[in-house]
Amino acid sequence: MNGKFVTIEGCDGVGKSTQVRLLKERFEREGIAAVFTREPGGTVIAEKIRKIILENEAEKMDAMTELFLYEASRRQHTARIIEPALEAGKLVICDRYVDSTLAYQGYGRGLDIETIKRLNAVACGKTKIDLTLFLDVTSKEGFKRKGGASGGDRLESESAAFYERVYAGFSSIADEEKRVVRVDASGTKTQTHEKLYASLKQRGYI
Hints:
The structure is a single chain. By secondary structure, the chain is α/β, with parallel strands linked by helices. Helices cover 54% and strands 13% of the residues. The protein is built from 8 helices and 5 strands. Strands 2-3-1-4-5 form a 5-stranded parallel beta sheet, sandwiched between helices. 39% of the residues are buried.
């Protein structure tokens, strides 16, 4: 594929969605063409699946059911948005992708890592990530930033211990994968934004 695929990852509370928004706004100001999207979601069908995943229902969702929903959303999103954009030579920036599934459902929920990797591969098809920017903030700080466990959605209501496992997962992935760049996101949102922008510029993506 001629385009470049960049994912932005991190635990809840690190300011990830804010950073994606700031990049989008700056790109628009500077006339830089890119496709911005998110997971779970990105298409009509995938957004409907997102709603099911995040809803706080009385019925407890099985961890494998959750995983399959994420992968179904990913396949639709990849096939309809990401692959066509990359084939057209576009830069795609995605708020979460496969690493989040490994960190949350693998390390967080305790599901088998190899099973998740196989399902990720099926959902992604021929799509490969070129660069992952991991917003590195400790689980303790991220949990504090988001105000602790809340009733916002199923994942936001998880405990501090859950997010410690998720952070350990992201850290392990960052150590193993050369495509992952750790970005210290402990400073202000402007400082973090400049680090992200510089990382993209240094690699010639913008």
